Amino acid sequence: MCEDILTRRFGTLRQKKNRTSAWIEASYLTPFWAFDKWPGLKKRQYANFDIDDAAGALVWLKDTKLRIDAHSWQSERKVLRE
């Protein structure tokens, strides 16, 4: 199922496919301090992108890294609820 994996200093990009479509899955480890603030978070955070949007996936990872470093990161689950 997994064709290509790119591990970066921060996060991972994977090309995934099934019988009918293909996409890029971007993920990163949840910041360790977030588990106290949002119990029940998964170990990794994921986002899917169109197969031809690798640049968008990289921007998502870079943006997330900047928010984590600035301690302004929020759980996507919390952001979607607001």
Would you summarize the structure shown here?
This protein is of the alpha+beta class and 82 residues long. It has helices at 34-37, 54-69, 76-81; strands at 2-7, 12-17, 22-29, 44-50.
Q: Percent of residues in beta strands?
A: 25-35%
Strand order of the largest sheet: 1-2-3-4
Number of contiguous helices:
3
Helical percent range?
Answer: 25-40%
- Mean pLDDT figure: 87
Shape: globular
The counted number of beta strands is 4
Order of helices and strands: EEEHEHH
Radius of gyration: 14 Å
Structural class: alpha+beta
Segments where pLDDT lies below 50 for 5+ residues?
none
Total discrete domains: 1
Describe the structure.
There is one protein chain. The chain is an alpha+beta fold and 82 residues long. The protein has 3 helices and 4 strands.
Task: Summarize this structure as a short list of keywords or feature phrases.
82 residues; alpha+beta; 4-stranded antiparallel beta sheet
List the helices and strands and how they pair.
Elements: E1 2-7, E2 12-17, E3 22-29, H1 34-37, E4 44-50, H2 54-69, H3 76-81
